[in-house]
């Protein structure tokens, strides 16, 4: 199984690197997405034109995002050129948006429920801490330790659902929608979700998570101290640029690898 995971990932990476025109389109769309997202965050709604611009940016950002996803789940399985891949992805992106709505709703509901639970846990921890006498005695610390485990459990559930389970489900729904259409994907949702959580799919996603999440995190937050301020700024810029490259490349390769094993599993 490990060999299959490695082979699928390597094959997806090779397919992406061979199709260099598609790779350029990926990076172009990625940069455009970053620019649109930045403009959306910094634009203030002071005039009618700024309100209109904010509205257009709010529409453009998810559309660009889903075009990238549509390309990502298709590039490794078809021999089309970059232009054909982009045209097909432009036609499929709205399908991916629709099939993602239930996933987005589940994520929103989960975040909302956690938001209701988290303050209760925090309040309970504070009350338990105040209840501990000075000097503390072992029996008095037991309730606090139990409540801290509740916080750990909530954090673990958040990570597993929001960063592993829901993305895996969404990716496999995207793959099925791109190949079979949205109606067929909805009808076969149970089979698709079962395939999403198969061991090979989970291993590929976890391996990809290291590339597009862990490595960029380390690049961004690991300092490279320097006595020269300009050199430190340059190193920070280089780390940020490299992190962005890892995010895109790792994510797209993960999509391609998952698409490859989904084809083999059919």
Describe the 3D structure.
With 266 residues, the protein is mainly α. It has one domain (2-130, 142-265). Helices cover 87% and strands 0% of the residues. The protein has helices at residues 2-18, 20-42, 48-72, 82-131, 138-180, 182-187, 189-196, 199-221, 229-265. Helix 1 packs across helix 8. The longest helix is centred in the middle third of the chain and has 50 residues, at 82-131. The model has no long low-confidence stretch (mean pLDDT 86).
Compile the SSE list and pairings:
Blueprint: H1 2-18, H2 20-42, H3 48-72, H4 82-131, H5 138-180, H6 182-187, H7 189-196, H8 199-221, H9 229-265
Helix pairs in contact: 1-8, 1-9, 2-3, 2-4, 3-4, 4-5, 5-7, 8-9
Write a compact overview of the structure shown.
This protein is mainly alpha-helical and 266 residues long. Helices cover 87% and strands 0% of the residues.
Main attributes of the structure:
266 residues; mainly alpha; globular
Topology pattern, helix = H, strand = E: HHHHHHHHH
Average predicted local confidence, pLDDT: 86
Q: Compute the gyration radius: what is it?
A: 22 Å
Query: How many domains is the backbone divided into?
Result: 1
Strand content: under 5%
Largest sheet: none
How many runs of DSSP E, i.e. beta strands? 0
